[in-house]
Automatic annotation (TrEMBL):
<dbReference type="InterPro" id="IPR017452">
    <property type="entry name" value="GPCR_Rhodpsn_7TM"/>
</dbReference>
<feature type="transmembrane region" description="Helical">
    <location>
        <begin position="281"/>
        <end position="309"/>
    </location>
</feature>
<feature type="transmembrane region" description="Helical">
    <location>
        <begin position="205"/>
        <end position="231"/>
    </location>
</feature>
<feature type="domain" description="G-protein coupled receptors family 1 profile">
    <location>
        <begin position="44"/>
        <end position="306"/>
    </location>
</feature>
<keyword id="KW-0807">Transducer</keyword>
<feature type="transmembrane region" description="Helical">
    <location>
        <begin position="104"/>
        <end position="123"/>
    </location>
</feature>
<feature type="transmembrane region" description="Helical">
    <location>
        <begin position="65"/>
        <end position="84"/>
    </location>
</feature>
<keyword id="KW-1133">Transmembrane helix</keyword>
<keyword id="KW-0675">Receptor</keyword>
<keyword id="KW-0472">Membrane</keyword>
<comment type="similarity">
    <text>Belongs to the G-protein coupled receptor 1 family.</text>
</comment>
<keyword id="KW-0812">Transmembrane</keyword>
<feature type="transmembrane region" description="Helical">
    <location>
        <begin position="243"/>
        <end position="261"/>
    </location>
</feature>
<feature type="transmembrane region" description="Helical">
    <location>
        <begin position="31"/>
        <end position="53"/>
    </location>
</feature>
<feature type="transmembrane region" description="Helical">
    <location>
        <begin position="144"/>
        <end position="161"/>
    </location>
</feature>
<keyword id="KW-0297">G-protein coupled receptor</keyword>
<dbReference type="Pfam" id="PF00001">
    <property type="entry name" value="7tm_1"/>
</dbReference>
Length: 351
């Protein structure tokens, strides 16, 4: 976003040019965040996939198949977005000459974003049928697999517009008298600028607003059915309530983490650059870094929610990391002998 504001200047009445100094996020801080987030995203989502494979209860659940789809899209954000940013921020590798790399990485990044929100819709539909329409047949693993295939096909199809608008663009910069330097970057050619406003509105609707409206309506109906119906308050209903709480929190966090990026992307694209307030120009780099940090955090926070709310995920977490959770404590009897007792915090922690 900061690049969109680089041409903004302020001219006073005496024709002197005053350009305020933009606030920058230190490269060291940006690199540290990317490295930490990459580690969190990869480790947490691989753990989710291992947990589903190892736990028979999770493996048989159609909801967990959608959760696997969500984890795959999060992993794609880690592998196809963060390395590009690390190369740019950490090593100054802004140039690009490969059309395949330019179009391919952009397409994969958009596929990951689309698959995330579409997978959330799939989870919502699965829970809606189980809670609001209990007499209807539940989604089987085959049904879930077909839905997931449709999700990824739709995500790939919609994201293809990134391959159309992006290309290798060469910029020439003067560096001295009759001396110029050419730099090739992955960008939108000038003859396609007119498409950007339409695409930004489309992304906001397809990848954010419309899916969230659908999810809000479905979960509102589920909450009404679970909390305000006259049905008996049995153990099954309590479990469904807990599952819905977890999934609502997943949707809320998605909404919060992606809203700043969607809002400011739309704002900068739809606003005349000369009318953007100077303060926003000054802080544009910080705004962009904050937005990126927020939406990347959404790719690693979900596994922690699963571990907190879901007993099966929590059991598998303790099983996988039992070597860390095990501790030894020494008890010294009155006889002076030393007795070593090994305790496993797994048994004490599980509820």
């Amino acid at each position: 976003m900061a690049n969109n504001l680089s041409n903004l200047s302020v001219t006073s009445s005496d024709n002197s040019l005053t350009i305020p100094t933009a606030k920058r996020v230190p490269n060291e801080l940006t690199m540290a965040i990317f490295v930490v987030f990459f580690t969190l995203i990869v480790c947490s989502n691989i753990w989710v996939m291992i947990a589903v494979v190892r736990q028979s209860k999770l493996r048989k659940s159609s909801t967990c198949m959608f959760i696997i789809s969500l984890s795959i899209s999060d992993l794609m954000m880690a592998f196809f977005y963060i390395p590009m940013q690390v190369a740019y921020v950490g090593f100054g590798l802004a140039g690009m000459s490969s059309v395949v790399l330019c179009k391919g990485t952009a397409w994969l990044q958009w596929v990951a974003q689309c698959a995330t929100i579409f997978s959330l819709i799939g989870i919502g539909i699965d829970r809606y049928r189980a809670i609001v329409q209990p007499l209807h047949p539940k989604l089987t693993r085959t049904d879930a697999a077909v839905c997931i295939a449709v999700i990824w096909i739709c995500a790939g199809t919609y994201s293809s517009h990134r391959m159309y608008v992006l290309d290798i663009v060469t910029f020439t910069h003067p560096v001295g008298f009759n001396v110029t330097v050419s730099t090739s970057v992955c960008a939108v050619p000038s003859d396609k600028y007119y498409l950007l406003s339409y695409l930004e509105v489309s992304d906001f609707l397809v990848m954010y607003l419309v899916p969230l409206i659908i999810l809000c309506v479905m979960y509102a109906i589920m909450v009404s059915s679970l909390w305000f119906s006259s049905a008996p308050n049995d153990e099954s209903k309590q479990k469904k309530r807990k599952a819905v709480k977890m999934l609502i929190l997943v949707v809320v966090l998605f909404c919060i983490s992606w809203f700043p990026w969607r809002f400011f992307s739309l704002y900068f694209q739809m606003t005349d650059i000369t009318t953007i307030p100077v303060n926003i120009y000054i802080w544009s780099d910080v705004i962009a870094a904050t937005c990126i940090t927020l939406y990347l955090s959404n790719s690693w926070v979900n596994p922690f929610l699963y571990a907190y709310f879901n007993q099966s995920f929590r059991d598998e977490f303790y099983r996988l990391f039992s070597w860390i959770l095990k501790r030894k404590s020494k008890v010294t009897p009155s006889t002076g002998q030393t007795l070593t007792i090994t305790t496993n915090s797994v048994n004490n922690t599980l509820t």
